[in-house]
TrEMBL record:
Zn(2+) binds at C92, C95, C132, C135. Binds 1 Mn(2+) or Fe(2+) ion per subunit. InterPro entries: 4Fe4S_Fe-S-bd, FUR, Fur_C, WH-like_DNA-bd_sf, WH_DNA-bd_sf. Belongs to the Fur family. Keywords: DNA-binding, Iron, Metal-binding, Repressor, Transcription, Transcription regulation, Zinc. Its cofactor is Mn(2+); Fe(2+); Zn(2+). GO terms for molecular function: DNA-binding transcription factor activity; transcription cis-regulatory region binding; zinc ion binding. This is Fur family transcriptional regulator, zinc uptake regulator. It holds the Pfam family FUR. One of its GO terms (biological process) is regulation of secondary metabolite biosynthetic process. Residues 83-115 form the 4Fe-4S ferredoxin-type domain. It comes from the Bacteria. It comes from Schwartzia succinivorans DSM 10502. Fe cation binds at H86, H124.
Length: 143
């Protein structure tokens, strides 16, 4: 948490009470919260905060690498990037269960291919979609 606040300060962003509240709200969740769930948590201390404000803060925090945005068809979820450690996610397309996977599928080949076009890669978003173990069991039982 402190290293995220430090990162914001270094980039010249103020730690407004709202930003602090959004970051603090993550602590209330064991799994990855949606923006709506974060809003509910933030409103406990800041009743006047709108969903728009949450989205704006999440967009900024994502851009700064303080938060990971994980795309799901049922609604994006967010994760606090506490370690600043780069990794990807497994997203269940049935129940929405989201898990971290400690690997990155991007190799130098992509960087080289992009360079041929004069393009400098500064980041990427990658999610694996499929069925979680619980949903796979259910699928097998229905057969
Ligand atoms: Zn599932
Ligand atoms: Zn993760
Ligand atoms: Zn990666």
């Amino acid at each position: 948490m402190e290293n995220i606040l430090e990162k914001l300060r270094q980039k010249g962003y103020k730690i407004t009470p709202q930003r602090r509240a959004v970051l603090d709200a993550f602590q209330a969740f064991e799994t990855f919260p949606t923006a709506q769930q974060l809003l509910t948590a933030v409103r406990k201390t800041h009743p006047d905060v709108s969903l728009d404000t949450i989205y704006r803060n999440l967009a900024l925090l994502t851009e700064l690498g303080a938060v990971h945005e994980i795309r799901r068809s049922s609604g994006n979820v967010y994760e606090l990037a506490t370690g600043g450690h780069h990794h990807h996610h497994l997203v269940c397309t049935k129940c929405g269960k989201t898990e971290c996977i400690d690997m990155c599928p991007i190799s130098d080949a992509y960087t080289k291919e992009a360079e041929k076009k004069g393009f400098l890669i500064t980041g990427h978003i990658f999610e694996f979609y499929g069925l979680c173990s619980d949903c796979r069991k259910k699928e097998n039982n229905n057969r």
